[in-house]
Automatic annotation (TrEMBL):
Gene: tilS
Function: Ligates lysine onto the cytidine present at position 34 of the AUA codon-specific tRNA(Ile) that contains the anticodon CAU, in an ATP-dependent manner. Cytidine is converted to lysidine, thus changing the amino acid specificity of the tRNA from methionine to isoleucine.
Reactions mediated catalytically: cytidine(34) in tRNA(Ile2) + L-lysine + ATP = lysidine(34) in tRNA(Ile2) + AMP + diphosphate + H(+)
InterPro entries named among the record's database cross-references: Rossmann-like_a/b/a_fold, TilS/TtcA_N, tRNA_Ile_lys_synt, tRNA_Ile_lys_synt_N, tRNA_Ile_lys_synt_subst-bd
Stated name of the protein: tRNA(Ile)-lysidine synthase
């Protein structure tokens, strides 16, 4: 399946895939309902393109603004959730669990910069992954993640390919646009160089380091006697001796995967780590009105 907006990047990826021999693609387009007639015309463009190329096409519409207001989340987050939900429905319909996305190098740089400004750790500095498996079973594949926007433009020009222009991409209303049009050019000017390659290198190094630490945490947590049958975590000398970079990942995996708790972010993990101290709290609050308790050298959720 190919997630396609009708814009330059996804259209370029479509033609690249066709050139590479992928002839059984399923084009998936979600109308977010954020740009009125322009959004409707985008969907019509994708439908015509699919028909011209003889490809299957799935188009749905969702009022993303209404969802964002109802859930009290940002429009960007609501749009992302809507897209993932749509793609999951299509995966179940066709029993196809690989989705191709057209994120490119500049998108990656913007993601890393945004994550940095939010105080992200290694995982955030790694940015988007070329291959990402979601909990739903979907595999998101980004073949263009190290391809520059200028290369995409040159390819489209050589193909004389038509695509849609998204007017919202120039709006300062969205943080990503300001990172793209203001922050990155300013960094290029300050550093007297193109910073995108350096940010891509940062992502590669951060991904390697994060993977190594995650493996250490997994090896520790899955060793015999670490987690008991009731899912409680044993406060052992070995746990107390772990480097914070590893123990924080132990707690993250234990809470997110073993206890299947949503919303486990930095603040929760930091509070959980404080319970290991001799004078640490015996109880902390967790998402969804749950609590983490400590007693008799064990930690558990209730």
């Amino acid at each position: 399946m190919l997630a396609i907006s009708g814009g330059r990047d996804s259209v370029a990826l479509l033609h690249l895939l066709r050139d590479a021999g992928f002839t059984e693609l399923i084009l998936c387009h979600l109308n977010h309902g954020l740009r009125g007639k322009e959004s409707i015309d985008d969907a019509a463009f994708v439908r015509r393109l699919a028909k011209k190329l003889g490809l299957k096409c799935e188009i749905e519409a969702e009022d993303v603004a209404a969802v964002a207001e109802k859930k009290r989340i940002s429009t960007e987050m609501a749009a992302r959730e809507a897209r993932h939900g749509f793609l999951l429905r299509m995966a179940e319909k066709y029993d196809v669990w690989v989705v191709l996305l057209a994120h490119h190098a500049e998108d990656q740089a913007e993601t890393i910069l945004g994550n940095l400004c939010r105080g992200s750790g290694m995982a955030g500095l790694a940015g988007m992954h070329t291959v990402q498996r979601l909990d739903s079973g979907l595999h998101l594949v980004r073949p263009l993640l190290h391809v520059r926007r200028s290369e995409i433009d040159a390819y489209l020009k050589s193909k004389r390919a038509k695509f849609r222009e998204d007017s919202s991409n120039t709006s300062p209303k969205y943080r990503r646009n300001r990172l793209r049009h203001e922050a990155l050019p300013l960094l290029n000017d300050i550093c007297a160089r193109d910073v995108v390659p350096q940010m891509l290198r940062l992502a590669t190094l951060a991904e390697q380091d994060d993977d190594a630490l995650q493996r250490q945490a997994m090896d520790f947590l899955t060793a015999e006697g670490r987690v008991l049958e009731d899912r409680s975590l044993v406060i052992s000398p070995e746990l107390l001796a772990l480097h914070p970079a590893v123990s924080s990942r132990v707690f993250a995996f234990w809470l997110r995967e073993v206890w299947e708790l949503p919303g486990v972010e930095y603040e929760v993990i930091d509070a959980a780590l404080s319970m290991l101290a001799a004078d640490g709290p015996a109880k902390i609050n967790l998402p969804e009105d749950k609590h983490l308790r400590r007693k008799a050298k064990r930690l558990w959720v209730e």
